[in-house]
Amino acid sequence: MSESAAKTENSTAQLRCIGCGQIALPDRFRCEHCRDLLEIIFPSWEDRGPGGLSSVALKRLWRDRRASLDPADQSGVWRFREILPEIAKEQIITIREGNTPLYELPHCAASAGVGQLYAKHQGMNPTGSFKDTGMTVAASFARQAGYKWVACASTGNTSASMAAYAARGGLHSLVLIPDGKISWSKLSQSLDYGAITCQLKTDFDGCVRVLNEVVQRMPVYLLNSVNPYRVEGQKTAAFELLEHFGWEPPDHIIVPGGNLANSSAIGKALREMKQLGFISRLPKISVIQAEGANPLIRTIRETGGEKLVPVHADTMATAIRIGNPASWKKALRVIRESEGTVEQVSEIEIALAKAEIGAEGIGCEPASAVTLAGLKKLVMQGFVKPNESVVLVLTGHVLKDSEYTLKFHRGDLFAETPFEKESHALKSQQRAPLSLEPNVEAVIELLRSAEK
Ligand code: F0G
């Protein structure tokens, strides 16, 4: 089928409540009947597949688009547009997000005790985090729906991404962030991209509470991850990953958990891929949280997944410093249907894992490193077998939190914290900058001792 025919046959998306199944209006976030979250469904896929195409034809079309110069085709999100809600081409706001690399991590594999370990590096997106893949879809929808303002509460990456897409799309943006609890690099991005940026004297969960009221009273479109269009865009990372593997699923995918939308998106993508015949089995999807921000782990262990157990969150991995995750039910469903699991990791384990990923020449931000730290535990528990293939989803770029990295290498990340004593075990990973006289002999002397 020709490209233009595929476009006209594009399926119509609907918003459906994940709790009671009621259909909702396209710009809502919660069900009017039971207040549960909404998800996007594509009823027409049942009859004729996305864009009226078979899985074989879609795989070829998506790969061929990589050679195209059309901005939508160059985007690693919009080249999969048949599995996304339809947006008019002239409304698409893209900064060529997606198409992120898959790296092998041989040293981390050895450290974790598995044979094949890969990182799907979503930090290689234009604003340095996975948020761009969802933001391109939700911001484009906002523009198409006629909104002039978009807003989010954020631990820093959503706000950086939203500010960039709003600027590119001619929208105004409002950011609410917890005062002093996000990295400077992320804050600087939203300033530079022109958002109205407010630091509130509360945590992320407090920012969400304020913003939810604001959007009810003002014509502002909410771009937090409860936004179902963001979840749709974030699905494409999983499509890309499976494309990389020749549509043969890895055994495990490991994702960091904060507000729990990304694990939900990756799981939704894989569920759809199985329904559409792209793959015949699901990889196990496991979610890792920081010990100090572990509401999902507590929800599962203390209530069997029946009722959310919110926590007062605290972790140096500020991106996932979230105690009351909105998408917990969606994530729980993904973990259950893929037979994955959850685990929590300590601050020391996160710091060590981050240094190990950095030492592979890749790097990531602390929140992403929970995946490797969690994998080590899952291997020790026998949940991940040494001969299984594992993909870590690295969500943010190493430059997103250089203050953390510098403090780690200088040896003062854990100074005056309860982890100070335990942190001595990290010494062998630390490479503080050396101060030398501007003297050739001194540098050569250093090289000689380093060679030994
Ligand atoms: N990793 C990074 C780097 C993040 O920024 C986030 C979330 C997560 C993981 C967790 O993803 O919420 O989908 O489970 N950051 C949000 C923000 C909350 O505001 O930037 P999740």
What order do the helices and strands come in, and which of them pair?
Layout: H1 3-8, E1 14-17, E2 23-24, E3 38-41, H2 45-48, H3 55-64, H4 71-74, E4 102-104, H5 106-112, E5 116-121, H6 131-144, E6 149-153, H7 157-169, E7 172-178, H8 184-192, E8 196-200, H9 204-217, E9 220-222, H10 228-244, E10 252-256, H11 261-275, E11 284-290, H12 295-303, H13 328-338, E12 342-345, H14 347-358, H15 366-380, E13 389-394, H16 402-410, H17 440-451
Parallel strand pairs: 5-13, 6-7, 6-9, 7-8, 10-11, 10-13, 11-12
Antiparallel strand pairs: 1-2, 1-3, 4-5
Helix pairs in contact: 6-7, 6-10, 7-8, 10-11, 11-13, 14-15
Bound molecules: ligand F0G.
Ligand F0G binds at residues 129, 131, 154-158, 225, 256-262, 319-320, 365, 367-368, 395-396.
What Rg, in angstroms, do the CA atoms define?
A: 22 Å
Bound molecules: ligand F0G
Give the termini distance in whole angstroms. Answer: 63 Å
Number of strands: 13
Low-confidence stretches: 1-11
User: Quick one: biggest sheet?
Assistant: 6 strands, mixed
In what order do the strands lie side by side in the largest sheet? 4-5-13-10-11-12
Strand content: 5-15%
Q: What's the rounded overall pLDDT mean? A: 96
Q: How would you classify the helix and strand content by structural class?
A: alpha/beta
User: SSE string, helix = H, strand = E?
Assistant: HEEEHHHEHEHEHEHEHEHEHEHHEHHEHH
Principal-axes geometry comes out as globular
- Output the number of helix runs: 17
What is the helical fraction, as a range of percent? Answer: 40-55%
